Model the fold of this input.
Amino acid sequence: MIKLKNINHTFSIGRKGHEHYVPVLQNINLSVEAGEIVSIVGRSGSGKSTLLNVIAGFLKPKSGRIYLNNKDITDLSETAHADFRLKNVGFIFQNFQLMPGLSAFENIELPLKIRGMGKTARKQTVEKIMLKVGLEKVGDHYPNELSGGQQQRVCIARALVTNPSIILADEPTGSLDSETEQEILALIRSLNEVLDLTFIIITHDEEVANITTSKYRMHDGEMMAVAAHAI
Ligand SMILES: Nc1ncnc2c1ncn2[C@@H]1O[C@H](COP(=O)(O)OP(=O)(O)OP(=O)(O)O)[C@@H](O)[C@H]1O
Done:
């Protein structure tokens, strides 16, 4: 489903004329099959977010190829990439990134509005997702009227609502207490099982890495497989 082939990336640091180049991704190869939950762990600065940005198409690698569902997406234009993301990829963030002026329902509905879906279909789709993630009672709450766990559920529902084939998650439980973390991890597992959704999760947290089917560790821009086990 996702294949990274020999991905390399460097950032240039410093003023023009005095810049130096820091290799951040070095010869990364990764293959993620449909229905997997993959975690990428590693210290701060090891290149995890850069890798996720490359997979998402926000950052073009200096070299290497990226395939999603057998389609080479490395050289898509920005517009084509944005369109591709809207149809195929959902995002979950550590700090939720919800729109503060929109209710839970409206936050989840937003990607469907952007896609031009009609009002009745939107309502049906959002209500179905809200039920799936346990938000049916708080649709009219604004983000500041929700707990951290509920906000993360809204973020997850918003990621799911366009029916993506893959979810990219950046520290999805980083802002949650340990009990809420367990609830969100259980939700991710059940979505994976029921919907056969694929997840790539970057995390510092070994608890998160424990629910995954494959685990990789980044170290100074290099990646190695740590373990693979059935959940
Ligand atoms: N836009 C940029 N320009 C220059 N250097 C960058 C840029 N973004 C990241 N870096 C550098 O690339 C390296 C990897 O950063 P990255 O954010 O991918 O690490 P990370 O593993 O996600 O860290 P964290 O867990 O703290 O988020 C770091 O040394 C960082 O300083």
About this structure: Residues 11, 13, 24, 42, 44-50 surround adenosine-5'-triphosphate (CB under 6 Å). Strands lie at 2-13, 20-32, 37-42, 63-68, 71-72, 89-93, 166-170, 198-203, 214-219, 222-228. Residues 178-195 form the longest helix (18 residues).
